[in-house]
Amino acid sequence: MIIEAHGLRKTFTAKRGRGKTEQVEAVRGVDLEVEAGQIFAVLGPNGAGKTTTIRMLATLIPPTAGTATVAGHDVAKEPGKVRENIGYVGQAGGVDENAPGRDGLVLAARLGGMSRKQAESRSEELLTSFSLTEFADRPIKTLSGGQKRRFALAIGLVNRPPLFFLDEPTTGLDPQNRANLWDEVRALRKQGTSVLLTTHYLEEADALCDRLVIIDHGLVVAEGRPDDLKKEIAGDVVTLRLGDAANEPAQALLSAEPYVKEVRTEDETLRVYVDDGEHNLPHLLRALEAGGLGIQSISLDRATLDDVFLRHTGRSLRDAD
Amino acid sequence: MFRHTMLFLGYELKLTLRNPVWPLFGILQPILYLLLFAPLVANTTVGGTMGDTLRLFTPGVLMMIALFGSLFVGFGMINEIRNGYLERLAVSPAWRPAIVLGRTMRDMLVLVVQALLVIGLAFLMGMRASAPGVLVMLVLMAATGLLASGLSYGLALALRDENGMSQIMQFFALPLILLTGIMLPMSLAPHWMQTVAHFNPLYHAVEAGRSLFDGDFTDGSIPLAFGLTLALGALTLTWSVSSMKKLAG
After folding, report:
1. ipTM above 0.90, yes or no
2. CB–CB of B88 and A156 under 8 A?
3. CA angle, residues A285, A288, A291, in degrees to nearest 5
4. CATH 3.30.70.260 residue spans of chain A
5. Which terminus of chain B is more solvent-facing, meaning fewer CB atoms within 10 Å of its CB: N or C?
6. For the segment A271-307, what is each residue's pLDDT rounded down to a tens digit?
7. What is the pTM assigned to this prediction?
Protein backbone atom coordinates (compact mmCIF):
# COMPACT_ATOMS: atom_id res chain seq x y z
CA MET A 1 0.00 0.00 0.00
CA ILE A 2 1.48 3.30 -0.96
CA ILE A 3 -1.20 5.20 0.94
CA GLU A 4 -3.03 4.00 4.02
CA ALA A 5 -5.26 6.46 5.80
CA HIS A 6 -7.66 5.81 8.66
CA GLY A 7 -10.19 8.13 10.18
CA LEU A 8 -8.80 11.32 8.70
CA ARG A 9 -10.52 14.39 10.05
CA LYS A 10 -9.94 18.07 9.56
CA THR A 11 -11.72 20.86 11.32
CA PHE A 12 -11.08 24.46 10.39
CA THR A 13 -11.78 27.43 12.58
CA ALA A 14 -13.39 30.10 10.48
CA LYS A 15 -13.82 33.66 11.66
CA ARG A 16 -17.36 34.91 11.57
CA GLY A 17 -16.63 38.53 12.43
CA ARG A 18 -16.49 40.34 15.76
CA GLY A 19 -14.38 37.77 17.54
CA LYS A 20 -16.74 34.89 16.89
CA THR A 21 -15.41 31.76 15.30
CA GLU A 22 -17.05 28.78 13.73
CA GLN A 23 -15.78 25.24 13.52
CA VAL A 24 -16.01 23.89 9.99
CA GLU A 25 -15.62 20.14 9.62
CA ALA A 26 -14.21 19.74 6.16
CA VAL A 27 -13.28 16.09 6.48
CA ARG A 28 -15.20 13.96 8.94
CA GLY A 29 -13.57 10.56 8.90
CA VAL A 30 -12.04 9.34 5.66
CA ASP A 31 -10.39 5.96 5.11
CA LEU A 32 -8.26 5.36 2.02
CA GLU A 33 -6.10 2.56 0.71
CA VAL A 34 -4.09 2.96 -2.46
CA GLU A 35 -1.94 0.22 -3.93
CA ALA A 36 1.32 1.04 -5.61
CA GLY A 37 1.16 1.48 -9.37
CA GLN A 38 -2.52 2.47 -9.39
CA ILE A 39 -4.36 5.55 -10.49
CA PHE A 40 -6.69 6.36 -7.63
CA ALA A 41 -9.40 8.99 -7.88
CA VAL A 42 -11.16 10.94 -5.17
CA LEU A 43 -14.43 12.02 -6.73
CA GLY A 44 -16.94 14.40 -5.24
CA PRO A 45 -18.75 17.69 -5.69
CA ASN A 46 -17.17 21.02 -4.79
CA GLY A 47 -16.88 21.41 -1.07
CA ALA A 48 -16.89 17.69 -0.38
CA GLY A 49 -13.48 17.75 1.27
CA LYS A 50 -11.39 16.34 -1.58
CA THR A 51 -8.78 19.08 -1.62
CA THR A 52 -8.49 19.03 2.17
CA THR A 53 -7.99 15.28 2.09
CA ILE A 54 -5.28 15.36 -0.55
CA ARG A 55 -3.53 18.20 1.26
CA MET A 56 -3.46 16.19 4.47
CA LEU A 57 -1.91 13.27 2.60
CA ALA A 58 0.66 15.56 0.97
CA THR A 59 1.63 16.92 4.43
CA LEU A 60 0.46 20.42 3.64
CA ILE A 61 -1.97 20.51 6.55
CA PRO A 62 -1.92 18.39 9.69
CA PRO A 63 -4.96 16.20 10.30
CA THR A 64 -7.10 17.10 13.28
CA ALA A 65 -7.49 13.38 13.91
CA GLY A 66 -6.70 10.09 12.22
CA THR A 67 -3.54 8.64 10.76
CA ALA A 68 -2.05 8.37 7.32
CA THR A 69 0.98 6.50 6.05
CA VAL A 70 2.15 7.81 2.70
CA ALA A 71 5.04 6.20 0.79
CA GLY A 72 5.97 4.32 3.91
CA HIS A 73 6.09 7.20 6.36
CA ASP A 74 3.62 8.71 8.78
CA VAL A 75 2.47 12.15 7.66
CA ALA A 76 2.39 13.54 11.17
CA LYS A 77 5.61 12.04 12.49
CA GLU A 78 7.88 12.07 9.44
CA PRO A 79 6.57 14.68 7.01
CA GLY A 80 10.05 15.37 5.68
CA LYS A 81 10.47 11.75 4.58
CA VAL A 82 7.04 11.77 2.96
CA ARG A 83 7.94 14.88 0.97
CA GLU A 84 11.03 13.22 -0.42
CA ASN A 85 8.82 10.65 -2.09
CA ILE A 86 5.93 12.64 -3.46
CA GLY A 87 5.16 15.12 -6.21
CA TYR A 88 2.28 17.53 -5.79
CA VAL A 89 0.38 19.74 -8.18
CA GLY A 90 -2.24 21.86 -6.44
CA GLN A 91 -5.33 23.43 -7.90
CA ALA A 92 -3.55 26.70 -8.47
CA GLY A 93 -0.72 25.04 -10.37
CA GLY A 94 2.07 26.28 -8.17
CA VAL A 95 4.71 27.39 -10.66
CA ASP A 96 6.70 30.59 -10.53
CA GLU A 97 5.11 32.48 -13.40
CA ASN A 98 7.86 35.08 -13.73
CA ALA A 99 10.57 32.60 -14.54
CA PRO A 100 11.01 30.50 -17.67
CA GLY A 101 9.90 26.92 -17.32
CA ARG A 102 13.38 25.56 -17.80
CA ASP A 103 14.68 27.54 -14.79
CA GLY A 104 11.88 26.20 -12.65
CA LEU A 105 12.65 22.64 -13.69
CA VAL A 106 16.36 22.99 -13.03
CA LEU A 107 15.73 24.55 -9.61
CA ALA A 108 13.37 21.76 -8.61
CA ALA A 109 15.85 19.16 -9.78
CA ARG A 110 18.76 20.71 -7.90
CA LEU A 111 16.66 21.09 -4.75
CA GLY A 112 16.06 17.37 -5.05
CA GLY A 113 19.79 16.78 -4.92
CA MET A 114 20.93 16.67 -8.53
CA SER A 115 24.05 18.38 -9.77
CA ARG A 116 23.74 21.13 -12.34
CA LYS A 117 24.53 18.79 -15.23
CA GLN A 118 22.10 16.15 -14.03
CA ALA A 119 19.42 18.77 -13.48
CA GLU A 120 19.85 20.20 -16.95
CA SER A 121 19.68 16.86 -18.68
CA ARG A 122 16.67 15.78 -16.62
CA SER A 123 14.95 19.05 -17.52
CA GLU A 124 15.65 18.47 -21.19
CA GLU A 125 14.18 14.98 -20.87
CA LEU A 126 10.97 16.25 -19.32
CA LEU A 127 10.64 19.14 -21.77
CA THR A 128 10.78 16.65 -24.62
CA SER A 129 8.31 14.18 -23.15
CA PHE A 130 5.79 16.96 -22.40
CA SER A 131 6.42 18.72 -25.74
CA LEU A 132 7.44 21.92 -24.01
CA THR A 133 10.89 22.53 -25.49
CA GLU A 134 9.62 25.33 -27.68
CA PHE A 135 8.26 27.24 -24.70
CA ALA A 136 10.95 26.45 -22.20
CA ASP A 137 12.76 29.76 -22.22
CA ARG A 138 9.91 32.23 -22.02
CA PRO A 139 8.38 33.31 -18.68
CA ILE A 140 5.60 30.91 -17.82
CA LYS A 141 3.06 33.69 -17.54
CA THR A 142 3.26 34.14 -21.30
CA LEU A 143 2.03 30.61 -21.93
CA SER A 144 -1.46 29.22 -22.36
CA GLY A 145 -3.35 27.44 -19.59
CA GLY A 146 -2.64 24.01 -20.97
CA GLN A 147 1.08 24.70 -21.30
CA LYS A 148 1.26 26.09 -17.76
CA ARG A 149 -0.44 22.99 -16.43
CA ARG A 150 2.03 20.76 -18.30
CA PHE A 151 4.91 22.65 -16.75
CA ALA A 152 3.35 22.21 -13.32
CA LEU A 153 3.18 18.48 -13.97
CA ALA A 154 6.73 18.32 -15.31
CA ILE A 155 8.14 20.17 -12.31
CA GLY A 156 6.33 17.83 -9.96
CA LEU A 157 7.86 14.82 -11.68
CA VAL A 158 11.42 16.07 -11.81
CA ASN A 159 12.65 13.91 -8.95
CA ARG A 160 10.80 10.81 -10.15
CA PRO A 161 8.55 10.44 -7.10
CA PRO A 162 6.89 7.06 -6.65
CA LEU A 163 3.65 8.83 -5.73
CA PHE A 164 2.10 11.82 -7.46
CA PHE A 165 -0.74 13.95 -6.12
CA LEU A 166 -2.93 15.89 -8.55
CA ASP A 167 -5.61 18.21 -7.24
CA GLU A 168 -8.27 18.85 -9.87
CA PRO A 169 -5.74 18.67 -12.69
CA THR A 170 -8.03 19.43 -15.62
CA THR A 171 -10.29 22.13 -14.18
CA GLY A 172 -10.37 25.01 -16.61
CA LEU A 173 -8.80 23.13 -19.50
CA ASP A 174 -10.43 22.72 -22.87
CA PRO A 175 -11.34 19.19 -24.03
CA GLN A 176 -8.21 18.79 -26.13
CA ASN A 177 -5.89 19.69 -23.27
CA ARG A 178 -7.93 17.55 -20.91
CA ALA A 179 -7.50 14.52 -23.15
CA ASN A 180 -3.77 15.19 -23.45
CA LEU A 181 -3.41 15.40 -19.72
CA TRP A 182 -5.27 12.13 -19.29
CA ASP A 183 -2.79 10.51 -21.65
CA GLU A 184 0.09 11.87 -19.62
CA VAL A 185 -1.40 10.52 -16.40
CA ARG A 186 -1.81 7.11 -18.02
CA ALA A 187 1.79 7.24 -19.17
CA LEU A 188 2.79 7.83 -15.54
CA ARG A 189 1.06 4.66 -14.47
CA LYS A 190 2.88 2.80 -17.22
CA GLN A 191 6.17 3.91 -15.74
CA GLY A 192 5.14 2.61 -12.35
CA THR A 193 4.24 5.89 -10.67
CA SER A 194 1.21 5.78 -8.39
CA VAL A 195 -1.21 8.65 -8.85
CA LEU A 196 -3.88 10.01 -6.55
CA LEU A 197 -6.07 12.64 -8.16
CA THR A 198 -9.10 14.56 -7.03
CA THR A 199 -11.79 15.61 -9.43
CA HIS A 200 -15.42 16.57 -9.68
CA TYR A 201 -15.68 15.34 -13.26
CA LEU A 202 -17.11 11.86 -13.26
CA GLU A 203 -15.93 11.19 -16.82
CA GLU A 204 -12.42 11.84 -15.63
CA ALA A 205 -12.67 9.42 -12.73
CA ASP A 206 -14.33 6.88 -14.99
CA ALA A 207 -11.76 7.17 -17.75
CA LEU A 208 -8.61 7.23 -15.69
CA CYS A 209 -8.78 5.45 -12.41
CA ASP A 210 -8.30 1.87 -11.30
CA ARG A 211 -10.08 2.48 -8.04
CA LEU A 212 -11.87 5.42 -6.56
CA VAL A 213 -13.64 6.78 -3.53
CA ILE A 214 -16.64 9.02 -3.75
CA ILE A 215 -16.64 11.72 -1.10
CA ASP A 216 -19.55 13.85 -0.02
CA HIS A 217 -19.67 16.26 2.92
CA GLY A 218 -16.39 15.03 4.29
CA LEU A 219 -17.21 11.32 4.31
CA VAL A 220 -16.59 8.41 1.96
CA VAL A 221 -19.89 7.24 0.50
CA ALA A 222 -18.60 4.64 -1.94
CA GLU A 223 -15.34 2.88 -2.64
CA GLY A 224 -14.11 0.44 -5.26
CA ARG A 225 -13.49 -0.07 -8.93
CA PRO A 226 -15.70 2.03 -11.24
CA ASP A 227 -17.15 -0.98 -13.05
CA ASP A 228 -17.95 -2.80 -9.82
CA LEU A 229 -19.71 0.23 -8.40
CA LYS A 230 -21.78 0.66 -11.51
CA LYS A 231 -22.70 -3.01 -11.61
CA GLU A 232 -23.91 -2.79 -8.04
CA ILE A 233 -26.56 -0.39 -9.17
CA ALA A 234 -27.53 -2.05 -12.40
CA GLY A 235 -26.26 -2.27 -15.94
CA ASP A 236 -28.51 0.31 -17.57
CA VAL A 237 -30.60 3.33 -16.80
CA VAL A 238 -33.82 4.32 -18.50
CA THR A 239 -34.53 8.00 -18.01
CA LEU A 240 -38.17 8.97 -18.44
CA ARG A 241 -40.20 12.15 -18.47
CA LEU A 242 -43.86 11.40 -17.97
CA GLY A 243 -45.57 14.67 -17.16
CA ASP A 244 -47.16 15.92 -13.95
CA ALA A 245 -48.39 13.58 -11.30
CA ALA A 246 -47.51 10.56 -13.37
CA ASN A 247 -44.30 9.84 -11.46
CA GLU A 248 -45.83 8.15 -8.45
CA PRO A 249 -48.09 5.69 -10.21
CA ALA A 250 -45.30 5.03 -12.70
CA GLN A 251 -42.89 4.30 -9.90
CA ALA A 252 -45.29 1.82 -8.31
CA LEU A 253 -46.05 0.18 -11.62
CA LEU A 254 -42.48 -0.19 -12.77
CA SER A 255 -41.11 -1.38 -9.43
CA ALA A 256 -43.38 -4.35 -9.81
CA GLU A 257 -41.75 -5.37 -13.06
CA PRO A 258 -39.25 -8.23 -12.59
CA TYR A 259 -36.39 -6.76 -14.61
CA VAL A 260 -36.48 -3.42 -12.80
CA LYS A 261 -33.98 -3.19 -9.95
CA GLU A 262 -34.82 0.24 -8.68
CA VAL A 263 -36.79 3.34 -9.54
CA ARG A 264 -35.74 6.83 -8.45
CA THR A 265 -37.41 10.15 -8.98
CA GLU A 266 -35.30 13.21 -9.55
CA ASP A 267 -37.33 16.39 -9.98
CA GLU A 268 -39.36 15.72 -13.11
CA THR A 269 -37.46 12.72 -14.40
CA LEU A 270 -37.73 9.13 -13.43
CA ARG A 271 -34.62 6.97 -13.41
CA VAL A 272 -35.35 3.31 -13.84
CA TYR A 273 -32.44 0.95 -13.21
CA VAL A 274 -32.78 -2.23 -15.25
CA ASP A 275 -30.67 -5.16 -16.25
CA ASP A 276 -30.17 -5.68 -19.94
CA GLY A 277 -31.90 -2.49 -21.00
CA GLU A 278 -31.78 -3.28 -24.68
CA HIS A 279 -34.06 -6.26 -24.38
CA ASN A 280 -36.23 -5.05 -21.57
CA LEU A 281 -37.05 -1.65 -22.93
CA PRO A 282 -39.95 -2.88 -25.07
CA HIS A 283 -41.46 -4.60 -22.00
CA LEU A 284 -41.14 -1.39 -20.07
CA LEU A 285 -42.85 0.61 -22.79
CA ARG A 286 -45.69 -1.88 -22.95
CA ALA A 287 -46.10 -1.81 -19.18
CA LEU A 288 -46.41 1.96 -19.16
CA GLU A 289 -48.87 1.93 -22.03
CA ALA A 290 -50.98 -0.71 -20.30
CA GLY A 291 -51.04 1.48 -17.22
CA GLY A 292 -52.30 4.38 -19.31
CA LEU A 293 -49.22 6.54 -18.68
CA GLY A 294 -48.02 8.77 -21.50
CA ILE A 295 -44.30 9.25 -22.12
CA GLN A 296 -42.94 12.66 -23.01
CA SER A 297 -39.33 11.57 -23.51
CA ILE A 298 -37.23 8.52 -22.95
CA SER A 299 -33.58 7.52 -23.16
CA LEU A 300 -31.49 4.46 -22.43
CA ASP A 301 -27.93 4.73 -21.11
CA ARG A 302 -25.35 2.69 -19.31
CA ALA A 303 -25.16 3.40 -15.60
CA THR A 304 -22.57 6.03 -14.77
CA LEU A 305 -20.77 7.11 -11.64
CA ASP A 306 -23.38 9.82 -11.36
CA ASP A 307 -25.92 7.08 -10.72
CA VAL A 308 -23.63 5.61 -8.09
CA PHE A 309 -23.43 9.00 -6.44
CA LEU A 310 -27.17 9.43 -6.64
CA ARG A 311 -27.75 6.06 -5.04
CA HIS A 312 -25.48 6.81 -2.11
CA THR A 313 -26.30 10.44 -1.45
CA GLY A 314 -29.69 11.09 -2.97
CA ARG A 315 -28.30 13.87 -5.14
CA SER A 316 -26.90 13.97 -8.62
CA LEU A 317 -23.26 14.92 -8.92
CA ARG A 318 -24.13 17.30 -11.70
CA ASP A 319 -26.53 19.27 -9.53
CA ALA A 320 -24.63 18.96 -6.33
CA ASP A 321 -22.60 22.14 -6.63
CA MET B 1 20.92 23.72 3.97
CA PHE B 2 23.55 26.15 2.78
CA ARG B 3 23.30 24.65 -0.66
CA HIS B 4 19.56 25.21 -0.82
CA THR B 5 19.98 28.82 0.31
CA MET B 6 22.52 29.39 -2.43
CA LEU B 7 20.25 27.71 -4.98
CA PHE B 8 17.40 30.05 -4.11
CA LEU B 9 19.73 33.05 -4.07
CA GLY B 10 21.05 32.21 -7.53
CA TYR B 11 17.57 31.62 -8.88
CA GLU B 12 16.17 34.87 -7.48
CA LEU B 13 19.19 36.88 -8.64
CA LYS B 14 18.81 35.51 -12.14
CA LEU B 15 15.16 36.55 -12.11
CA THR B 16 16.04 40.04 -10.90
CA LEU B 17 18.74 40.44 -13.55
CA ARG B 18 16.32 39.28 -16.20
CA ASN B 19 13.81 41.90 -15.14
CA PRO B 20 15.51 44.75 -13.26
CA VAL B 21 12.55 47.08 -13.62
CA TRP B 22 11.55 46.99 -9.95
CA PRO B 23 14.98 47.68 -8.42
CA LEU B 24 15.56 50.47 -10.91
CA PHE B 25 12.14 51.85 -10.17
CA GLY B 26 12.99 51.70 -6.49
CA ILE B 27 15.80 54.17 -6.82
CA LEU B 28 13.94 56.54 -9.10
CA GLN B 29 12.26 58.50 -6.33
CA PRO B 30 15.39 58.77 -4.17
CA ILE B 31 17.37 59.93 -7.21
CA LEU B 32 14.78 62.59 -7.87
CA TYR B 33 15.04 63.72 -4.27
CA LEU B 34 18.79 63.94 -4.66
CA LEU B 35 18.64 65.89 -7.88
CA LEU B 36 15.78 68.19 -7.03
CA PHE B 37 15.75 68.52 -3.27
CA ALA B 38 19.42 68.68 -2.38
CA PRO B 39 19.99 72.01 -4.13
CA LEU B 40 17.09 73.46 -2.12
CA VAL B 41 18.50 72.20 1.16
CA ALA B 42 21.90 73.55 0.18
CA ASN B 43 20.38 76.99 -0.02
CA THR B 44 18.79 76.78 3.42
CA THR B 45 21.99 75.73 5.18
CA VAL B 46 23.99 78.72 6.22
CA GLY B 47 27.36 78.79 4.50
CA GLY B 48 26.88 75.31 3.12
CA THR B 49 28.37 74.10 -0.12
CA MET B 50 26.78 71.51 -2.33
CA GLY B 51 29.37 68.99 -1.22
CA ASP B 52 28.58 69.53 2.46
CA THR B 53 24.87 69.35 1.87
CA LEU B 54 25.19 66.13 -0.05
CA ARG B 55 27.22 64.58 2.76
CA LEU B 56 24.34 65.38 5.04
CA PHE B 57 21.56 64.52 2.66
CA THR B 58 22.71 61.34 0.92
CA PRO B 59 22.59 59.04 3.96
CA GLY B 60 18.95 60.02 4.28
CA VAL B 61 18.33 59.25 0.65
CA LEU B 62 19.96 55.86 1.12
CA MET B 63 17.53 55.08 3.90
CA MET B 64 14.76 56.15 1.58
CA ILE B 65 15.73 53.43 -0.87
CA ALA B 66 15.54 50.93 1.93
CA LEU B 67 12.11 52.14 2.93
CA PHE B 68 10.61 52.45 -0.51
CA GLY B 69 12.42 49.54 -2.08
CA SER B 70 13.23 46.69 0.25
CA LEU B 71 10.19 47.12 2.41
CA PHE B 72 7.92 46.30 -0.50
CA VAL B 73 9.40 42.95 -1.51
CA GLY B 74 6.68 41.23 0.47
CA PHE B 75 4.12 42.06 -2.19
CA GLY B 76 5.88 39.73 -4.58
CA MET B 77 5.66 37.00 -1.96
CA ILE B 78 1.92 37.50 -1.52
CA ASN B 79 1.57 36.78 -5.21
CA GLU B 80 3.62 33.64 -4.82
CA ILE B 81 1.46 32.49 -1.94
CA ARG B 82 -1.68 33.06 -3.91
CA ASN B 83 -0.65 31.12 -7.00
CA GLY B 84 0.45 28.14 -4.97
CA TYR B 85 4.17 28.44 -5.72
CA LEU B 86 5.29 28.75 -2.11
CA GLU B 87 3.05 25.88 -1.17
CA ARG B 88 4.67 23.62 -3.71
CA LEU B 89 8.11 24.64 -2.43
CA ALA B 90 6.91 23.80 1.07
CA VAL B 91 6.05 20.27 -0.03
CA SER B 92 9.30 19.80 -1.92
CA PRO B 93 12.53 18.56 -0.33
CA ALA B 94 13.68 22.20 -0.06
CA TRP B 95 14.90 23.33 3.36
CA ARG B 96 12.21 25.82 4.29
CA PRO B 97 14.28 28.59 5.86
CA ALA B 98 16.27 28.66 2.62
CA ILE B 99 13.17 29.87 0.80
CA VAL B 100 13.21 33.08 2.83
CA LEU B 101 16.98 33.35 3.30
CA GLY B 102 17.71 33.16 -0.42
CA ARG B 103 15.26 35.95 -1.08
CA THR B 104 16.52 38.10 1.79
CA MET B 105 20.11 37.79 0.63
CA ARG B 106 19.01 38.79 -2.83
CA ASP B 107 17.24 41.82 -1.35
CA MET B 108 20.35 42.81 0.60
CA LEU B 109 22.51 42.56 -2.53
CA VAL B 110 20.04 44.60 -4.56
CA LEU B 111 19.93 47.27 -1.88
CA VAL B 112 23.73 47.56 -1.81
CA VAL B 113 23.84 47.94 -5.58
CA GLN B 114 21.12 50.57 -5.46
CA ALA B 115 23.05 52.38 -2.72
CA LEU B 116 26.19 52.33 -4.87
CA LEU B 117 24.30 53.89 -7.75
CA VAL B 118 22.94 56.70 -5.58
CA ILE B 119 26.33 57.32 -3.96
CA GLY B 120 27.84 57.41 -7.43
CA LEU B 121 25.34 60.02 -8.48
CA ALA B 122 26.06 62.06 -5.35
CA PHE B 123 29.78 61.95 -6.17
CA LEU B 124 29.02 63.26 -9.63
CA MET B 125 27.03 66.06 -8.06
CA GLY B 126 29.99 67.10 -5.95
CA MET B 127 29.88 65.06 -2.77
CA ARG B 128 33.27 64.21 -1.29
CA ALA B 129 32.86 61.64 1.43
CA SER B 130 35.35 59.47 3.26
CA ALA B 131 35.90 56.30 1.23
CA PRO B 132 36.19 53.90 4.18
CA GLY B 133 33.12 55.62 5.58
CA VAL B 134 31.20 54.84 2.43
CA LEU B 135 32.28 51.20 2.59
CA VAL B 136 31.11 50.85 6.18
CA MET B 137 27.89 52.56 5.21
CA LEU B 138 27.35 49.95 2.52
CA VAL B 139 27.63 47.27 5.18
CA LEU B 140 25.07 49.15 7.24
CA MET B 141 22.84 49.28 4.18
CA ALA B 142 23.07 45.51 3.88
CA ALA B 143 21.99 45.19 7.51
CA THR B 144 19.11 47.57 6.86
CA GLY B 145 18.15 45.44 3.88
CA LEU B 146 18.02 42.45 6.21
CA LEU B 147 15.68 44.31 8.53
CA ALA B 148 13.39 45.67 5.82
CA SER B 149 13.24 42.44 3.88
CA GLY B 150 12.62 40.30 6.94
CA LEU B 151 9.88 42.66 8.04
CA SER B 152 8.28 42.66 4.62
CA TYR B 153 8.23 38.88 4.26
CA GLY B 154 6.98 38.47 7.80
CA LEU B 155 4.10 40.81 7.09
CA ALA B 156 3.40 39.17 3.75
CA LEU B 157 3.19 35.71 5.30
CA ALA B 158 1.06 36.95 8.17
CA LEU B 159 -1.38 39.04 6.18
CA ARG B 160 -1.38 37.25 2.80
CA ASP B 161 -3.36 40.11 1.34
CA GLU B 162 -2.14 43.10 -0.65
CA ASN B 163 -4.75 45.49 0.73
CA GLY B 164 -3.93 44.89 4.37
CA MET B 165 -0.22 45.04 3.70
CA SER B 166 -0.55 48.20 1.67
CA GLN B 167 -2.50 49.89 4.45
CA ILE B 168 0.07 49.02 7.07
CA MET B 169 2.92 50.20 4.85
CA GLN B 170 1.23 53.52 4.16
CA PHE B 171 0.51 53.97 7.84
CA PHE B 172 4.11 53.58 8.90
CA ALA B 173 6.02 54.90 5.91
CA LEU B 174 5.40 58.60 6.34
CA PRO B 175 6.18 58.88 10.08
CA LEU B 176 9.27 56.75 9.54
CA ILE B 177 10.48 59.06 6.82
CA LEU B 178 9.75 62.23 8.70
CA LEU B 179 11.28 60.96 11.93
CA THR B 180 14.48 59.96 10.19
CA GLY B 181 15.68 63.45 9.59
CA ILE B 182 16.02 62.75 5.90
CA MET B 183 14.52 65.98 4.77
CA LEU B 184 15.91 68.29 7.37
CA PRO B 185 18.18 67.67 10.32
CA MET B 186 16.30 66.62 13.43
CA SER B 187 18.05 69.33 15.35
CA LEU B 188 15.46 71.63 13.84
CA ALA B 189 12.62 69.54 15.25
CA PRO B 190 10.79 70.18 18.56
CA HIS B 191 12.06 68.27 21.56
CA TRP B 192 9.27 65.71 21.68
CA MET B 193 9.87 64.77 18.07
CA GLN B 194 13.56 64.28 18.70
CA THR B 195 12.76 61.88 21.54
CA VAL B 196 10.40 59.83 19.40
CA ALA B 197 12.98 59.70 16.63
CA HIS B 198 15.35 57.90 18.96
CA PHE B 199 13.10 54.87 18.73
CA ASN B 200 13.39 54.77 14.97
CA PRO B 201 16.29 52.55 13.90
CA LEU B 202 16.46 54.38 10.58
CA TYR B 203 17.13 57.63 12.43
CA HIS B 204 20.22 56.11 13.98
CA ALA B 205 21.25 54.67 10.64
CA VAL B 206 21.03 58.09 9.03
CA GLU B 207 23.01 59.68 11.86
CA ALA B 208 25.61 56.94 11.54
CA GLY B 209 25.71 57.49 7.79
CA ARG B 210 26.35 61.18 8.24
CA SER B 211 29.21 60.51 10.64
CA LEU B 212 30.67 57.85 8.37
CA PHE B 213 30.57 60.09 5.32
CA ASP B 214 32.32 62.77 7.35
CA GLY B 215 35.00 60.23 8.19
CA ASP B 216 34.18 60.35 11.89
CA PHE B 217 34.40 56.74 13.04
CA THR B 218 34.16 57.51 16.69
CA ASP B 219 30.61 58.76 16.76
CA GLY B 220 28.37 56.74 19.07
CA SER B 221 25.63 56.55 16.53
CA ILE B 222 27.62 54.06 14.44
CA PRO B 223 27.72 51.12 16.84
CA LEU B 224 24.21 52.01 17.94
CA ALA B 225 22.92 51.87 14.40
CA PHE B 226 24.67 48.59 13.65
CA GLY B 227 23.55 47.01 16.88
CA LEU B 228 19.95 48.13 16.53
CA THR B 229 19.64 47.21 12.87
CA LEU B 230 21.27 43.82 13.26
CA ALA B 231 19.24 42.95 16.35
CA LEU B 232 15.95 43.98 14.76
CA GLY B 233 17.01 42.35 11.51
CA ALA B 234 17.63 39.07 13.29
CA LEU B 235 14.21 39.33 14.90
CA THR B 236 12.31 40.02 11.69
CA LEU B 237 14.23 37.32 9.86
CA THR B 238 13.36 34.79 12.55
CA TRP B 239 9.76 35.90 12.32
CA SER B 240 9.55 35.42 8.56
CA VAL B 241 11.40 32.08 8.64
CA SER B 242 9.05 30.69 11.26
CA SER B 243 6.05 32.04 9.34
CA MET B 244 7.34 30.22 6.29
CA LYS B 245 7.54 27.01 8.26
CA LYS B 246 3.92 27.45 9.27
CA LEU B 247 2.86 27.86 5.67
CA ALA B 248 2.53 24.13 5.36
CA GLY B 249 2.18 21.43 8.00
Report:
1. no
2. yes
3. 150
4. 234-302
5. N
6. 888 888 888 888 888 888 888 888 888 888 888 888 8
7. 0.83
